[in-house]
Amino acid sequence: PCIPPEWDGFTVERSFRGSRLSIKVHNPQHVSKGVVRFEIDGQTTTGNMVLVEGTPADHQIDVWLDK
Q: What are the Cα distances from residue 35, in Å, to 25, 28, 43, 56?
């Protein structure tokens, strides 16, 4: 994501293939972009794709921005 540096972050809900994704972007350093950590359901993952396989469920996605 690319956001105004003034923002502390934001949250959004998204339905995707029968699952509900609760997405929270954290911006503690007040930057505009630069993903440094990405978690799905509390598990750190590599890359930038959300892979939610199996039966539809609710998932929490956390993204941290930094320089």
A: 9, 12, 16, 26
